[in-house]
Amino acid sequence: MTWVGKLREPTPWKLQRCRIVHPESGETIDDGLVVHFKGPKSFTSEDVVELHIHSGRAVISATLSALSKLPTFRPAEPGEFTRQTEGQRRVAVRAAEGATKQKFDELRAGIISALAKVEALIDFGEGEEIEEGVYEDAKSRAQKVLDTIQGYLNDHRRGELLRSGIRLAIFGPPNAGKSSLLNFLAQREAAIVTPIPGTTRDILELSLDLGGLPVVLADTAGLRKTEDVVERIGIERARKAVESADISICVLSFPEVVQQQQQRNGLDSAASSHWRELISRDNTFFLFNKSDLVDSSPMPSPPLPSDVETLRLSLLPSEPRQEGDIADRDLTIAPKLDALPPAAMTVKAWKVSLATGDGTEEFLEGFAEVLRKRFGMDDILSDAASPVITRSRHRDHLQSAKMHLETFLEYGPDDVVFAAEELRYAANAIGKVTGAIGVEDILDAVFRDFCIGK
Ligand SMILES: Nc1nc2c(ncn2[C@@H]2O[C@H](COP(=O)(O)OP(=O)(O)OP(=O)(O)O)[C@@H](O)[C@H]2O)c(=O)[nH]1
């Protein structure tokens, strides 16, 4: 959170009197009270500011309108402020309990102990005889911290995903049931559903809880060839949303796919090289929808593939495609199983009817399981010993500390002054997460480790 212009950041956790001022006009809206709950020790673990204002309608609406002028501000959805998934709640509790802070404090202490050795060499090395191997000791301490940091950074960004939500994109040809899936997952009519293909033209996003994990769901425009300019923009956005998503679901109409397969036409409605790239991504899962229509309408022979997984595999291209290659027919060629990456061998497809609810329970359970496995949430939630990096800012600081420790390790004992500087940078980087490092800390460590002056 930034405090604009001359504004002072209120002292955290203190109810203070303040003037509430319009950010653009500078006009005073009210003489009120403010409490700043500084993250992560706040209800949502983010920085929270509570404004206590006079209850007149005019004051409230002027305050809300002033807030809406601030960049990235928007009113919360009903209940959104207090909504937390189970995963977030556990991470928040762990953070509040100080487990994460303690881990960072340990890193900082490790760097300070190495720095104390190097500082002692600089200050006393030549004049006073201090014990042998001090520099080597500093190096091995720094190496240990470096290894620990490396381990923490190697977490596939799970903490950040848990905090900001796993980005899930729904895509597929028009009229397959993408918006119906979004409404089913959201348990409300969030998207417009009609039998007219091309109803969804832009991306519709909403946040929800899937199996205890936070998910930011995006419904995208149906992928098809079109001359409609607006629809084409929507399709381009859809492609980008899928590419940048952490995971995606391709919704297909089961009867259509089967019919097209039997006629060996492939998926004619999405004839583009992008389409092929999107379905062959390792993080794409398949939902064959409208199973109710298959049961009620007799399909031409040969009989339907009973195994959904076989159907999915038959959609995947068997070899890498060239840009501009749009031979849809190739989509029906089943790839050799052993040519697929191991991840593709796990179940990645479900057959449902979003209209009747048939198969939706298995899909929900299966997909939540996939999310947990894929993003390693089971590990992160059960492993109380490792810190959870929930902010990219913290990751940046850890990365910076890692870089300075690596540079420190490259220096020899002849360059102690430069080497110490690198350790100081590393300690400062960690200090930005836990609270700034002070000169006192280093002096304490020097005097404690070397008994100087006693
Ligand atoms: N019979 C049947 N109809 C379904 C099912 N799911 C969705 N539909 C219908 O299929 C039509 C298209 O559904 P949508 O959810 O709007 O499909 P979409 O993929 O979002 O469509 P676009 O916005 O055109 O891309 C609607 O008339 C739905 O009522 C299903 O399981 N069975």
Automatic annotation (TrEMBL):
Molecular-function annotations in GO: GTP binding; GTPase activity
A Pfam family: MnmE_helical
Domain TrmE-type G: 165-376
CC terms in the record's Gene Ontology section: mitochondrion
Alphabetized UniProt keyword annotations: GTP-binding, Nucleotide-binding, tRNA processing
CDD domains: trmE (cd04164), TrmE_N (cd14858)
Any one biological process term the GO annotation gives: tRNA wobble uridine modification
UniProt superkingdom: Eukaryota
InterPro entries noted in UniProt: G_TrmE (IPR031168), GTP-bd (IPR006073), GTP-bd_TrmE_N (IPR018948), GTPase_MnmE (IPR004520), MnmE_dom2 (IPR027368), MnmE_helical (IPR025867), P-loop_NTPase (IPR027417), Small_GTP-bd (IPR005225)
The keyword Nucleotide-binding is annotated on this UniProt entry: yes
Keyword tRNA processing: yes
Record-stated family: Belongs to the TRAFAC class TrmE-Era-EngA-EngB-Septin-like GTPase superfamily. TrmE GTPase family.
PANTHER family, A to Z: TRNA MODIFICATION GTPASE GTPBP3, TRNA MODIFICATION GTPASE GTPBP3, MITOCHONDRIAL
Protein name: TrmE-type G domain-containing protein
Organism whose genome encodes this protein: Candolleomyces aberdarensis
